[in-house]
Write a structure and sequence with these properties.
Glutamyl-tRNA Synthetase, domain 2; Arc Repressor Mutant, subunit A; 24 helices; elongated; RNA-binding
RNA sequence: GGUCCCAUGGUCAAGCGGUUAAGACGUAGCCCUCUCACGGCUGAAUCAGGGGUUCGAGUCCCCUUGGGAUCACCA
């Protein structure tokens, strides 16, 4: 068969040859050991936390080695594409300070010399390589009916399982050039398939940075390279793009391991060197029955990156948490270097967990509390305001009008060596400090103590003094003594029945009157910020 | 059904032939204390099971079990 002729028949109008293309994509000039990584999502919806997890790894590896991290949008499936999804992806990356070194904003700008960064714009490139493979007898046209959609696949699979078929060599391999010409004349569409040399039985050794050497069956399938709409499949685009764009390390989910041999065969056919691969574990969630399954957009709110923005989590917290999941050395490093930027962490690709980690929001919360506790009140205010402007509009006016007051509230027990750590996301500020913004609507008081509660408050009207913290507390103690409460806790513990209670009890009553809760930060601080008038007002609401 | 991946407390995990099996989150208790939080201290809790190899196995090998992935002109 004259493959050269066949290639001309199939691709009469190609704009470029492979040689012309490769001239446009020169080898990257990289420092020693510099790694080029990429995030290559398909724009099918909102950004998934699993994708972002890979981003964290990609970015860390590139950053650490002084290399390049770029974004490539894999929009080759027009049916699944969602308008605006690529914008969301880029916006999400920006929110987390992960603006890639190279990327494309459709219709706005292209940053980097290895674009286009949308695969749909690279059609001519894939066609050039497909034509080359056909001309070399390594690929062929297939005119068969498409297997399309999941139902089609399931049907085909069931048939295969029941019959135990392992046939994967395509019948169109054997088409003569005359037959092909005939089909073309009839206007039949075709896909380009790889003419696989493997038999699917032999084992080959493949390498993964994480898992080391793996032994898998070689590829034996005549896999589709170019679909009948001339868009590339993932495997083909991956080989072509990552070669041209100079990717040195491919980070992808471990669901790709089974098709790794195919990718190797395509690289070989194309004469491309193989990049390094890191197959990352999928993030899991514990289910009600105790089992773990992949975190899913449909059932887990946390699977969708918008969840964290909406809840008001600090981007920094999520990055720390995910880095912690990705690299087991991180936690120890962070302990040693509590104030360093995470970008200084010597991330290496060898300490990424091989297990499937379970997403643990409690741990995230803890990391987040630590981070937020280090912020100044002013910084908290700015972040709270920014969050409200995006997700809690009803609070924006208030925040702006009463900035000074809000900052004071946010500063309760903050900017100290051992700051409080009760806020881990901005959406909880108004709940946590509800009593600072309005009088309590409910009081945590046991009805049997109602009389004592009211007695204390009635008396406290005379003893309230905010001039100084010591004076304030001395007055409370004085009042406690007068009302029959123990002022010495040791004496109280020795003989609790001799008293109505202790000073702590008295404080509890006052605290409940002011805040509605039995627990709160420092009472004196709260009262001072609230001001004497409001404090008296709140007491008057009760007695 | 074929192929592959994974297996240390509730969760994240250190460990890479000899350890009293780290640490963190969570949890229980104590201390500090006007409560809560913070902080400090203490505790409970782990090598899936079975065979080998070895003087010695969480660590190496095999099997079993369990969990997961994949087998599209989807990525």
């Amino acid at each position: 068969m004259d493959y050269k002729k066949l290639s001309e028949l199939l691709f009469p109008n190609n704009k470029f040859t492979v040689e012309e293309i490769e001239k446009k994509y020169p080898k990257r000039k990289l420092k020693n050991c510099a790694e080029v990584t990429r995030f290559a999502p398909s724009p099918t919806g909102f950004m998934h936390i699993g994708g972002f997890f890979q981003c964290v790894i990609d970015r860390n590896i590139a950053k650490r080695s002084g290399g390049v991290f770029y974004l490539r949008i894999e929009d080759t499936d027009k049916k699944r594409e969602l308008i605006g999804a690529s914008t969301i992806i880029l916006e999400t990356l920006k929110r987390y300070g992960y603006l890639p070194d190279e990327y494309e904003e459709k219709g706005v700008k292209v940053v980097g010399n290895y674009g286009p960064y949308f695969q749909s714009e690279r059609e001519e490139i894939y066609k050039a390589y497909a034509k080359k493979l056909v001309a070399e007898g390594k690929a062929f046209p297939c005119f068969c009916r498409k297997t399309e959609g999941l139902n089609d696949v399931k049907e085909k699979r069931e048939k295969m399982f029941s019959l135990g078929i392992t046939e994967d060599k395509d019948v169109c391999r054997n088409l003569t050039i005359e037959q092909i010409e005939e089909y073309l004349k009839d206007g039949k569409t075709f896909a380009i398939k790889l003419k696989s040399k493997g038999n699917g039985q032999n084992k080959i050794k493949v390498h993964d940075v994480l898992k080391g050497e793996l032994e898998i069956q070689e590829n034996g399938e005549d896999a589709v390279l170019l679909k009948s709409d001339f868009m590339p499949t993932y495997a083909f685009a991956h080989a072509v793009d990552d070669f041209l764009m100079g990717t040195t390390t491919v980070v992808r989910g471990e669901e790709w391991i089974p098709s790794y041999p195919l990718h190797i065969e395509i690289h070989e056919a194309l004469g491309f060197p193989l990049p390094k691969y890191i197959h990352t574990p999928l993030i899991n969630k514990i289910r009600e029955n105790g089992g773990k399954t992949k975190i899913s957009k449909r059932i887990d709110a946390e699977a969708d990156m918008r969840f964290f923005a909406r809840e008001g989590y600090e981007p920094e917290a999520l990055i720390e948490y995910l880095t912690n999941l990705a690299n087991s050395k991180f936690e120890g490093w962070r302990k040693e270097n509590p104030d360093k930027s995470i970008d200084e962490f010597p991330f290496d690709g060898f300490n990424i967990t091989a297990n499937r980690p379970v997403f643990d929001i409690l741990k995230l919360n803890d990391i987040s509390k630590d981070i937020i506790s280090k912020y100044t009140a002013e910084a908290c205010y700015q972040k709270l305001l920014a969050w409200a402007e995006e997700f809690s509009e009803e609070n924006v006016d208030y925040l702006k009008k009463d900035k000074e007051y809000v900052v004071k509230v946010l500063n309760i027990d903050r900017e100290k060596p051992k700051p409080r750590k009760d806020v881990y996301k901005w959406s909880m500020v108004f709940d946590t400090f509800d009593y600072m913004f309005s009088a309590p609507k409910k009081y945590q008081i046991d009805e049997i103590e109602r009389r004592k509660f009211e007695e204390v408050l009635r008396a406290y009207k005379k003893y309230l003094d905010l001039s100084d913290k010591t004076v304030w507390f001395d007055k409370i103690k004085e009042m406690a003594g007068v009302l029959g409460y123990a002022t010495d806790n040791k004496l109280y513990k020795q003989n609790p029945n001799a008293y109505k209670g202790n000073v702590a009890k008295v404080c509890e009553f006052i605290r409940v009157a002011i805040t509605g809760h039995k627990d709160s930060p420092d009472l004196y601080e709260i009262m001072t910020i609230l001001g004497e008038d409001k404090v008296r007002e709140r007491i008057s609401l009760i007695v």
